[in-house]
Amino acid sequence: MALSERLMDLAARTRGLEEAAEAARGRNVVRMEEQREQLRSKVAEAKGDAQARWNETTAKIERRRAELQASREQHKHERRVEAAQAYAGAAEEFASALTSLAAYTADAAAEATVDAGIAREHADSMARDQAPTA
User: Fold this and answer.
1) Following DSSP, what letter does each residue of 97-126 receive, concatenated?
2) Burial class (CB in 10 A: 0-12, 13-18, 19+), 19
3) Which of the 8 DSSP states describes residue 131?
């Protein structure tokens, strides 16, 4: 029901209330009893409408709550996937850095071995040159 329709209905009900008050002032018992019966039927009808609106509203709220819960679960899943991907990327970078370090260390060890061989050869050559000739 649109707001303008609700306002018009409220105005009509207010007029009914004014009529009931007028009948009460005039002590028109028959008219008051008629109005009481009309009001009881309107109250029963309004109660049914209110219950239907309440059921509809609670159903909408429950649907929205379920949508939000599903969205939150999806968001949590996405964050877990992103975190796992970030960890995997960091592990790959660490492995790459250690591989580079290992390659550097192997090259440095080879160079040191060659330097040691050259130094040994040079030392041995000097020792031969300085050895007393008998």
Assistant:
1) HHHHHHHHHHHHHHHHHHHHHHHHHHHHHH
2) middle
3) S
Cβ atoms of 45 and 60 closer than 8 Å? no
Angle in degrees, 0-180, between the axes of helices 29-130 and 3-26, rounded to the nearest 10: 150
Domain edges within the chain:
9-94
Token pair recorded at residue 120: 């040994």
Which is nearest to 46 in space by CA: 38, 116, 76? 38
Quick one: which of 50, 37, 41 has its CA closest to 6?
50
Q: What would the pLDDT profile of 86-107 be if each residue is shown by its tens digit?
A: 999 999 999 999 999 999 999 9
